What does this fold into?
Amino acid sequence: MKKYPYYVWIASVFGLGFIPSGMPGTVSSAAACVVSMIVDVPMWAVALVTVIGVWATDRSEKFFGTKDPSFLNIDEVPGMWLTLYLLPKGFIIPGFFLFRLIDILKPWPVSAMEKLPGGWGIMADDVLGGIFANIILQALNAYLYHAGWLYPLIEGVMK
It folds into this structure.
């Protein structure tokens, strides 16, 4: 394994981005799901990883001299955690697939976030993708189980 500066290790989710799977985003999203299975990730942790990710990916881009290399995948972690935020554990697998779908297809305005400079562009598209995925899953949770933070907002519409 090559020796890289510590910020590259952070930006690659401690080396997960270097696993020769051809799918570093999927691997890091899965790792974030494992953490979500064990603990309910608080919003302060999502915010902290996002801020650290902006810094680490920005520095890493400059180190490698290339824009958004695929092995810089810390952006998947807060995106996945936002996808699963305030949802029951039963939504982890559907959340994983929905987040990956949004991350791959990059619908507007998720795709527009990539145009932000440096680490902001790397992180913002996944953060927004995670928010979109969460809203979709919250609507599903409200419709199917009459639960979640979205249910009180749409309760009258569903009757």
User: Anything to note?
Assistant: The first helix runs from residue 6 to 11. The chain has eight helices and no strands.
